[in-house]
Amino acid sequence: MEVAAREREFVRVAGPDAADYLQRMVSNDVEALAPGDACPALLLTAKARVIAPLVVLRRAKEDFLVLTEPGLGEAVRTQLTRMRLRAQCEIEPEEHESVLVFGGSEGFATDWPGAREALDSGLAPTLSAEELELRRIESGVPRWEREIDDRILPAEAGLDATHVSFSKGCYPGQEPVARLHFRGHPNRGLRVLELAELPDYDAPLLHDGREVGRVTSAAHRGDGTVVALAYVRTEVPDDAPLALAARAG
Q1: How many structural domains are present in the chain?
Q2: What CATH number is attached to the domain comprising 235?
Q3: Is the pLDDT of residue 248 over 80?
Q4: Chain-centre distance of CA 234, in angstroms?
Q5: Residue 177 pLDDT level (bands cut at 50, 70, 90)
Q6: CB atoms inside a 10 Å sphere around CB 203
Q7: Which residues on adjacent β-strands are paired with residue 194?
């Protein structure tokens, strides 16, 4: 079992209407969760731009804990409070310590495939932050302010496969998410690449001299190679050679 510390911010949503309210606000089916279960979800604008990626943990019938990324806790609390209207639920911040657990049964399902997340477990980290970042990039896991920001649609980051229910009721952003899923396709997608050098954030990628994408994250492997995450236009074949644009200056 391997353990890595994970920075998180937390918002509690609890009360008689908590399940119904969250079901109407986030992109995944939180009403289907049993106590102790969790699912990844998104808080979106009406145009399906990401306000915050979430994991929603159902602690009891009327008690949910919303986990989000560092710096987003207040934005999540404010958005949920502003839209609450007559819903009977409390919305307030909480503090916890979170770890990712690889290869163990501790914790609950989270937004990282192959891992579970545990709160206040007392487990000591065995992976450094640098090792975790390399693992994240190699696994193609998108991160806030890298692969996820207000420029992307959920499908472009592959989040429609993990963070979205297409059988639940309405929520902000549902219509454009469903329209793209059922009637179209994203113009670009997230890929794991190997590069010859460590690029800058947002460095352009070229194919046959034409700009076809941008790099969002990159890290050195132990063997000296560089692995990266990048958005690449979907018409570019997966095995097409890609090159970094020349740096200015």
Answers
A1: 2
A2: 2.40.30
A3: no
A4: 21
A5: very high
A6: 19
A7: 227
- Distance between CA atoms of residues 158 and 111, nearest Å: 12
Q: Residue 141 CA to chain centroid, in angstroms?
A: 7
Instruction: State the alpha helices, DSSP H only, in the chain.
Output: 18-25, 73-82, 129-139, 174-183
Same domain, 114 and 195: no
Domain that holds residue 135: 2-139
Is residue 165 a contact partner of residue 173, using CB atoms and an 8 Å limit?
no
Do 13 and 130 have their domain in common?
Answer: yes
Q: By C-alpha distance, which of 104, 36, 111, 34 is closest to 67?
A: 111
Rg of the chain over Cα atoms, rounded to whole angstroms, equals 19
The domain that holds 39 is classified in CATH as 3.30.70.1400
d(CA 65, CA 117): 13
* pTM score, whole prediction: 0.93
